[in-house]
Design goal:
InterPro entries: HD/PDEase_dom (IPR003607), HD_domain (IPR006674). It comes from Agathobacter ruminis. The protein is 55% helix and 2% strand. The chain is built from 12 helices and 2 strands, in the order H-H-H-H-H-H-E-E-H-H-H-H-H-H. Strands 1-2 form a two-stranded antiparallel ribbon. It is globular.
């Protein structure tokens, strides 16, 4: 481990943007952990939920590789890697006695807090990482699991809060990639279909009506 090359943020972003094989990213887990030590809490973490076929770290990697390769914002790829980092702190049993799955209520907020308070401070001295990047990274992580509706009021609620069209579409791409990294049970497949629609022309049409 002492001989591992110290990965830079630029190199990590390049890896996440270009690599389509989750195994190739996983091979770099120790290098990534030297740059962002907090990611270790995801390594080999058993999610213990029927909707998941991967451990937490591999789920996040598959979310990264499920994104389109040509998105303009580097932070969406980093957000995909970190979107569930708060899950280990939130693992709990379901609310029904017959529910054998583990659940993660509130994990988007906890993930955002970890990224904001523990990950980002370690990245601020990296070349090219600016406060605006931090803002978008926090946004993607905090809202990656929002319940969406194919309804203009739902989409406009994001625009009303100052979210740009690009940020909204990127968030929907993240939701699609996240869902595709699950077992495709019906509720997950419905999320894929819904967010895929919201990531495309539909959001553009809603946005154009505002201007």
């Amino acid at each position: 481990m002492e001989n591992l090359k110290l990965m830079t943020l630029k190199e990590l972003i390049g890896l996440l943007r270009k690599e389509t094989d989750a195994k190739r990213i996983d091979e770099k887990r120790e290098e990534i952990a030297r740059l962002m030590p907090k990611v270790r809490i995801m390594f080999d973490f058993d999610q213990r939920n029927q909707a998941h076929q991967y451990d937490l770290w591999l789920h996040c990697i598959h979310t990264v590789t499920g994104l389109p390769r040509d998105l303009d914002d580097d932070m969406i790829y980093l957000g995909a890697l970190l979107h569930d980092i708060g899950k280990p702190d939130c693992q709990t049993r379901g609310r029904r006695a017959d529910d054998e799955d583990m659940h993660y209520y509130g994990h988007p907020k906890r993930s955002m807090e970890i990224v904001r308070d523990e990950v980002i401070p370690g990245l601020l001295d990296q070349d090219g990482f600016e406060k605006e990047d931090a803002r978008r990274l926090i946004y993607y992580v905090e809202h990656h699991d929002d319940r969406m509706s194919v309804d203009e009021r739902c989409v406009n609620a994001y625009f009303d809060k100052g979210v740009s069209l690009e940020e909204f579409r990127n968030l929907m791409h993240l939701q699609v990639a996240d869902a595709l990294a699950h077992v495709q049970i019906p509720i997950v497949a419905q999320r894929v279909e819904k967010c895929r629609l919201l990531s495309g022309a539909y959001a553009c049409e809603v946005f154009r009506k505002r201007v």
